[in-house]
TrEMBL record:
Membrane topology: Multi-pass membrane protein
Residue stretches spanning the membrane: 29-48, 55-79, 99-121, 128-149, 177-204, 263-288, 300-327
This protein's name: Branched-chain amino acid ABC transporter permease
GO MF, any single term: branched-chain amino acid transmembrane transporter activity
Pfam families hit by this protein: BPD_transp_2 (PF02653)
A GO CC term attached to the entry: plasma membrane
Compartment(s): Cell membrane
Predominant location category: membrane
Organism superkingdom: Bacteria
């Protein structure tokens, strides 16, 4: 017979762990203070900084399903691209208000993600990889063939976004775009932080580690995976809508396999299953791409491949995981 006191002790331990994880660490505070550096020291790179913030939100959405729930994907650009097109097409109807456009685009993509999740939760491993890849490729070809709606290979033109709150228009230097994307990224991190540092987040980790054992302890894994997949899709859709609103155009490559692959590379670089791992990976990848493309426009991806190989061989848990290991050794 099980000891009730032992069960209560386990629950108390879990609650204490969740409370500790929920506290803001000095690293997090320092990170969010550092995001203001481009405003003062690198104002000419604010456009790049806004692109990094969008990429970071996209990577965060992938980390929720890959790093925490163990759902492998190679087609998450489908949701990113659908969000981008939804925001663009919304402005074509005459409604260019950015905040409501962001919410509508995110809600629409979350609904698509919910419908897709019924397929995703029923397959694993290689089949899951192929299904996500296939869905991404099908969506891109569908957008390409529906040129009357999406613009096809020419992209969606004539996107007109209103000033934020009717006051803050997008300036040439990117001050408004970076501020806007940074605030949305912060809200996305708060939501993700609340999810992963909760009982629901713990159950996702349990599903990732041992899918078959979770139902035995009363955790319906399919329902939980559907929930996190829907949230992840909506977050990716918001990231795509941000790209449309800050660039006033939608290119067909928002749905490309290359974008799905890039986001996985960013996540591996920073470290999966770590809230800020994907964000750090996005910063490193985007800055490296910008600098390397300036040095060698044709072969810059070669050096990205070298960087990825070094990280995988030397730091298998990603850059943030490697730094965390060093910090633990220093503390001991």
């Amino acid at each position: 017979m099980s000891d009730p006191s032992a069960n209560n002790t386990g629950l108390d331990g879990a609650r204490a762990w969740i409370m500790r994880q929920g506290r803001w660490s000095p690293f997090e505070v320092a990170f969010w203070l550092a995001v203001f550096i481009p405003f003062f020291f690198f104002p000419t790179y604010l456009t790049l900084a806004s692109q990094i913030a969008i990429a970071a939100l996209f990577v965060l959405s992938v980390d929720l399903i890959l790093g925490y729930a163990g759902i492998i994907t190679l087609g998450h650009a489908m949701f990113f691209g659908l969000g981008a097109y939804a925001a663009g097409l919304l402005t074509k109807t005459g409604w260019g208000e950015p905040l409501t456009g962001l919410l509508i685009s995110g809600a629409f993509v979350a609904l698509v993600g919910f419908l897709v999740s019924f397929i995703i939760v029923r397959v694993q491993h290689l089949a899951l990889l192929m299904i996500t890849l296939g869905l991404g490729l099908l969506t891109m070809e569908l957008a390409n063939s529906m040129s009357w709606l999406t613009g096809g290979t020419d992209g969606l033109q004539g996107v007109s976004v209103w000033p934020i709150f009717g006051t803050f228009d997008y300036d040439l230097w990117g001050y408004t775009a970076y501020s806007y994307t940074l605030i949305v990224l912060f809200i996305g991190v708060l939501i993700a932080r609340r999810i992963v540092n909760s009982a629901f987040g713990l159950s996702l980790r349990g599903i990732r580690e041992n899918l078959n054992r979770m139902p035995a302890i009363g955790a319906p894994h399919q329902r939980r995976l559907q929930v996190i997949y829907t949230i992840s899709a909506g977050m990716a859709g918001v990231a795509g809508a941000l790209l449309t609103q800050t660039t006033s155009q939608v290119a067909l490559d928002v749905l490309s396999f290359q974008r799905s692959a890039d986001v996985v590379v960013m996540l591996i670089l920073g470290g999966t299953g770590r809230l800020y791992g994907g964000i750090i990976g996005a910063i490193i990848f985007m800055v490296a791409r910008d600098q390397l493309a300036g040095i060698n426009p044709q072969y810059w991806y070669f050096w990205i491949g070298i960087l990825l190989m070094i990280v995988v061989l030397v730091m298998p848990k990603g850059i943030l995981g490697f730094l965390a290991q060093i910090w633990e050794r220093v503390r001991r």
